[in-house]
Amino acid sequence: MCKINKFVLKTIFSFQLLWWGTAFVFGQNNALVLNGAYININNGTFASPVYLVVNNGTPAAITRTSGAILSEKEGNFVRWVTNNVVATTNYVFPFGYSNTDYLPVTIHKTSVGAVNNASNIDMSTWSTPNTNLPWATSVTAMTGSGGATAINSVIDRWWQIITLPAVTGTADVSYRGSENTTVYPVGPFSGQEWDIPSSSWMTATGSGPGVTAGVGSTTGIVLTGYGMGISAPYILSATVSPLPIELVSFTATCEGDKIHIKWTDASETNVSGIELQKSDDLNTWTTIYVAAPSNLSTTTNYNYRYKENSTSTVYYRLKTNNNDGGSDISAVINHQPCSGGVNTLSAFYSNNTLNVLSHFDADAKVTYTLYDMAGNKVLVGEYTATMGEQLLTFPVYELSNSIYLFKAESTTTYYTQKIIIAR
Question: Which of 82, 259, 398, 419 could link 404 by a cystine bridge, Cβ 3.0 to 4.6 Å?
Answer without folding.
Answer: 419
